[in-house]
Amino acid sequence: MHAILGLSAFHHDSAAALVLDGRIAAAAQEERFSRRARDAAFPRRAAAYCLHHAGLQPRDLDAVVFHEQPLARFDRVLETYLALAPRGLRSFLAAMPQWLRHRLHLPRAVRRGLPGRYRGPILFTDRPEAHAASAFFPSPFEEAAILTLDGPGEWATATFGVGRGARLELLEELRFPHSLGLLYAAFASYAGLGGDGAADELMGLAPYGQPVYRDVILRHLLDLKADGSFRLHLDYFRPGGPVRTTPAFHALFGGPPRSPKAPLRQRDMDVAASVQAVTEEVVLRMAHHVHARTGMPNLVMAGSAALNGAVNGRLLREGPFRRIWVQPAAGDAGGALGAALFAHHQLLGRPRRVEPDDAQQGSLLGPAFTAGDVATFLRGAEAVARAWTDEADLLEAAAELLASGKVLGWFHGRMEFGPRALGARTILADPRGGHPQGTDPFREGFRPFGACVLEEHARDYFDLPLGAGSPYMLCTFPVAQRQRVPCHDAGLWECEGLDRLRVPRSTIPAVTHVDGSARVQTVDARRHGRFHRLLQAFHRRTGCPVLAMASFHAPAEPIVCTPAEAYRCFLHTDLDALVLEDHLLLKHEQAPCPAPQRAVSRVELVLD
After folding, report:
1. CB 3.0 to 4.6 Å from 236: which of 11, 249, 299, 482, for a disulfide?
2. How many angstroms separate the CA atoms of 395 and 401, rounded?
3. How many degrees, rounded to 5, is the angle at CA 304 between CA 472 and CA 478?
4. For residue 591, which of 384, 380, 375, 376 has the smallest C-alpha distance?
5. Span 481-498, pLDDT tens digits
6. Where are the alpha helices (DSSP H) in 236-352?
7. Beta 450-454 vs 546-551: how paired, if at all?
8. Which tens digit of pLDDT belongs to each residue from 329-363?
9. Residues 518, 512 contacting (CB under 8 angstroms)
């Protein structure tokens, strides 16, 4: 057996991934264990989980691979700060201690961070190679064009190339500081939504506005070429810190950045719509260039900017490629997986097996807990729960709760790898009403629920291109016209801004955004098993094959990993019921806000 552990760390979304003989055995983000959102620390617990899952010790590894070249990144950081000095001095001084303690001493950090002693080789990939490998090697394509779209790393911020069999080659790159990720983060900061981690929020806000500043962005902020390459005009941007923009930027858009606590204004929505329109234009131009250069019918994508579902949906509908596959953990976390796969196939020359669906296994690559683990925890917590011995009866009970308007926490099987909940650690509700968009206590009011739909009924509710699926919720699609409610009759156009989200737009209003689109996960029996059967039970009961879904977590926390975390979230949020593997809990039967006694499972024991 050939075992390679991939690692990413020290920027955000640290992660570990284990590849055994070319197959993805386990992968997880450090945040799910540390409970610190977007944790950038060395992924000690995530690595320990991966090894424990496979029954390995560090000495059993053939190599450990880091997802970027730390010296190349340090060179970029130093050159950038020197070029901008004295601006950015504060962020430079804040960053240097971490570089001096950790990033410049990666081999030492790896040997100290892994459990036990590891004396084997430590390898480094280039960051674009790691992203490209994470996109191509698990994809269902024997050959494909590759496009990576990233923020700051080493020097390359976007690359394209080709993958064939067990080899990939990158052909062209866009270099820092000219970055689509940095452009999007600057606008997220300006809209008061945060920086690097606020892309989903900005994308969710965009449909409330009009792209009135699109031409301003294209005229003043970047020089966009026909092939999608561009140069940012740097007088408008500020490196690092909570504010990513300069007074010149603020003057273009009519005022200073919004305070995160201030109400959202129409200007904020229009700014979001405008940068989203520009982003879509950039990626479409890039895709046409890549298609013309490579002649490939299929495209794979990774990098943090590849998580923009609106861009991906438009690219799938309007772009030149027949099929598109995006790495579900497209950001920094996926770099750990790409590093391991790159070493296995590209550096060591091992063959690749192409799977008909893909090799990502539904991205269900994290820890799982047995019925015994759950029962032990529930006894220690003195929780009131019913254990079901027949799965069909459990699913019928859950479907009945959902059909009656209850909000359900769903915990089953292996935890998802990547930012999306995909039916393992998920909050579910009836999409037809009862909990419409804007009443979700787990996210900003303007962001819609996702939609999970039985794969075999997806085109009855959403306009998916023929032959396309969306098992990883990485695309938005229009809700089918036959499911729409006439907006003029419903009063949509008499409302402005966030008031529009209260107006029904379809037969599934909880998942329909104000522009008539939805973020869609197609659920199939091959990847999703019990989750597919739950949707079938709900469909039989209601005639609707769709559920509204959100990630299972409390505000400002990562997605839950363990039964204890799921139970605490259940108690302290507005969830009505909780399925923990084969156990069903109802909120009204629990003691008021108990302090659960934490029972440590076999998996958790090895993480401490």
Report:
1. 249
2. 10
3. 45
4. 384
5. 999 988 655 555 567 767
6. 247-252, 266-294, 309-318, 332-342
7. antiparallel
8. 999 999 999 999 999 999 999 999 999 999 999 99
9. yes
